[in-house]
Amino acid sequence: MGGGLLVAGTASDAGKSVLTAGICRWLAREGVRVAPFKAQNMALNSTVTADGAEIGRAQAMQAAAAGVEPEAAMNPVLLKPGSDRSSQLVVLGRPVAEVDALGYRPHKKALAAVVLDCLDDLRSRFDAVICEGAGSPAEINLRDTDIANMGLARAANLPVIVVGDIDKGGVFAALFGTLALLDPADQALISGFVINRFRGDPRLLDPGLRQIERLTGRRVHGVVPFRPGLWLDVEDSLDLARYADGGADGDPTGAPAGSGETLRVAVIRLPRLSNVTDLDAVRAEPGVVVRLATRPDDLADADLVVLPGTRATVSDLAWLRRRGLAGVLAARAAAGRPILGICGGYQMLGTRITDEVESGAGEVEGLGLLPVTTAFDPAKLLGRRHATSADGGHPISGYEIRHGRLTVAEHPHAAPFAADGVRVGAVAGTSWHGLLENDAFRRAYLTSVASAAGRAFTPGPDTCFADVRARRLDALGDLVADHLDTSALRHLLDHGAPADLPFVPPGAP
């Protein structure tokens, strides 16, 4: 086996990321050395590789599915939105510019060369590379500068399968329309379809499957059933509706049971919320319900409120105040009710933020709940971290992605939190992402939260988040093995797109 395959979608959130992960997992279990690849990713959820490069969190998840270490070549171009009009451009794991939509276009030619070099490098080192597209290949207004979909497929001669989400409705029209909008050379690489998130008896789809195959001359390579609890490591805001479904309820991967009352966690849904995946391990704890919050009322019954990371600390802090959430947080702190700030959320909890980098706002007053000041630096701090928890003696690890440099002032009631953070009463903050994936630390922290909230809640003593994630990745691999035509996928990887695929003109039949 050799070669590559591009998994495209009829739209964002069609299921490209999880199908790519599932194919990687299936191939890895078959003994194939496989790597994931996404040329260009727009996401606020990112992570850090072993050598300090920033890549999309979804590609790190796909690398875990493949059983390999994530690296910058797997996601050479990352766009991190800071507003509705501008994004930080990260190339090979390092920030290089702030760009708007029009300002990004001049970069595309140089980025195309970077992308193809990375893909060639991966293909030289792995038996197979499973590429994930971005958005839809039928975004015809962007086709002339495309480096992630058909532009990539054409340049690298990749066969393409197109995934459609039937749960949203209109899947046959979306599949047909995606194909019909492409020019003949692009269509020649569209080698088949996959229907995703189907609920019900697949025999009901048979007439539609036969007709779409007849109309397009492409095979449907499988129908993937809907499975709750598997959509881990969300990539962008479109995934958050599923993220807000609570905790492990409906998780088919068999997490062990906890005991006692339910613990309720509210995560403030900041406009530029980043790395919401920090709470995935908490969601995996039986008996914990995680909800997203945007209004003061959403925090009323929460045992723990989390102020998460953000790509726009100062503007999201202003939003927090406009929504009336800042006053609620102050009242919670005064009442001894737990609050946890992570990265940008930690910075907001401090007394002062000086920002001439992200927002250019200069000096801004923080929430004043922790004795911390933040000064933004143009150089982004990136790295994996390992230490022993100062407040519990637990071995912990995590990673940092930030421009803010924090200084902790003397305070009579301050105590260390984790390895880099501080706690005053029930309010705590840390700059480390991934901290709650450390099982012993997470259990100790949730136990303290339950005590402060007066809850008779005990975390599952055997909950291992790494095992939970591995089971979910195995479940994705099972979906591919059980519901896709894997022999057809192998043929595409070995031989590329079939040579006799017909052209479907717009408006046909």
From TrEMBL:
Record domain CobQ/CobB/MinD/ParA nucleotide binding: where: 6-230
GO molecular function: ABC-type vitamin B12 transporter activity; catalytic activity
CobB/CobQ-like glutamine amidotransferase domain location: 264-440
InterPro entries: Class_I_gatase-like (IPR029062), CobQ/CobB/MinD/ParA_Nub-bd_dom (IPR002586), CobQ_GATase1 (IPR033949), CobQ_N (IPR047045), CobQ_synth (IPR004459), GATase_3 (IPR011698), P-loop_NTPase (IPR027417)
Gene3D superfamilies: 3.40.50.880, P-loop containing nucleotide triphosphate hydrolases
Keywords, comma-separated and alphabetical: Cobalamin biosynthesis, Glutamine amidotransferase
Pathways involved: Cofactor biosynthesis; adenosylcobalamin biosynthesis
Active site: 343 (nucleophile), 433
GO biological process, one term: cobalamin biosynthetic process
Family: Belongs to the CobB/CobQ family. CobQ subfamily.
HAMAP family, alphabetized: CobQ (MF_00028)
Summary of the function given for this chain in its UniProt record: Catalyzes amidations at positions B, D, E, and G on adenosylcobyrinic A,C-diamide. NH(2) groups are provided by glutamine, and one molecule of ATP is hydrogenolyzed for each amidation.
Name listed for the protein in its UniProt record: Cobyric acid synthase
Gene name, Swiss-Prot/TrEMBL: cobQ
